[in-house]
Design goal:
alpha+beta; 252 residues; 23% strand
């Protein structure tokens, strides 16, 4: 075997051995493509998710907020059927991917929707809900809870109804809550869910609804990587400042 070829094999073996570790630092574990909301699922690459969302309208364009790295949205401004979809993304050093999808609709008198029609659509898509909670005043919450393989659970801890992807919005940049509250720990470890929030006009008709698909364990893993990277950068900056200060010796 030539010396050049032997070096090539050694370098190839080295790259194969280190590659999984490098990828693991920046990408949370693979998660299933189901459940989804409008074909978008947690873990979906940002570019693919944006293309998928645009398929939902030929008239209105997907837009990014002032901080495009956080996500994008599609607002269908139809007075008879206003529809808004928001997609939220993981932050560096993670690969940019979906961690939450949220859809909301305000229902008009011109194009009414009944509660039974919405429930039929949700059951066709996700099956029978795992948990439900009537919070009064026409507000009904339904939860489809999944395990980390994407399998719908027939039963789940009722305390998971206190979990919310929306409440994690700032944490995706700053890291998970470190308070150690038991309910938060359950949310962070188990809440992979579709939540439907129904706002009823009366016993039959809807005033509006909102859907939220989130995989909190996935989001927590991504947020932890972001937090650790920020802390490491802050530590390096502090050390650099200290080193410069140590060199700033006055002459007397």
């Amino acid at each position: 075997m030539s010396l050049l070829f032997a070096r090539f094999l050694t370098m190839t073996t080295f790259l194969i051995l280190i590659s999984p570790g490098v990828q693991a630092q920046n990408q949370p574990a693979t998660i299933p493509h189901s459940p989804d909301l409008l074909g978008i699922y947690p873990g979906m690459p940002a570019i693919a998710a944006r293309q998928q969302l645009q398929k939902h309208s030929t008239k209105f364009l997907v837009k990014s907020p002032s901080a495009p790295e956080l996500g994008f949205s599609l607002a269908i401004m139809d007075p008879s059927s206003a529809d808004n979809v928001e997609v939220f993304l993981t932050q560096a050093p993670n690969a940019s991917a979906v961690w939450m999808v949220r859809r909301s609709q305000n229902i008009s008198n011109v194009n009414p929707m009944s509660k039974s029609a919405l429930l039929a659509g949700l059951h066709d898509k996700y099956g029978k809900e795992t948990l439900s909670q009537d919070r009064g005043g026409g507000g009904l919450y339904l939860y489809w809870i999944f395990d980390q393989s994407g399998r719908l659970l027939r039963s789940a801890d009722p305390e998971l109804m206190g979990c919310s992807g929306s409440a994690f919005y700032n944490n995706i940049r700053n890291g998970p809550d470190q308070s150690g509250l038991p309910v938060l720990q359950r949310c962070y470890s188990s809440f992979f869910a579709v939540t439907a929030m129904l706002n009823s006009r009366d016993a039959e008709l809807l005033q509006g609804y909102s859907l939220e698909l989130v995989n909190l364990p996935y989001a927590v893993q991504a947020a932890t990587a972001t937090m650790n990277a920020k802390n490491a950068a802050s530590g390096r900056a502090k050390q650099d400042e200290t080193n410069r200060a140590d060199q700033n010796k006055p002459t007397f």
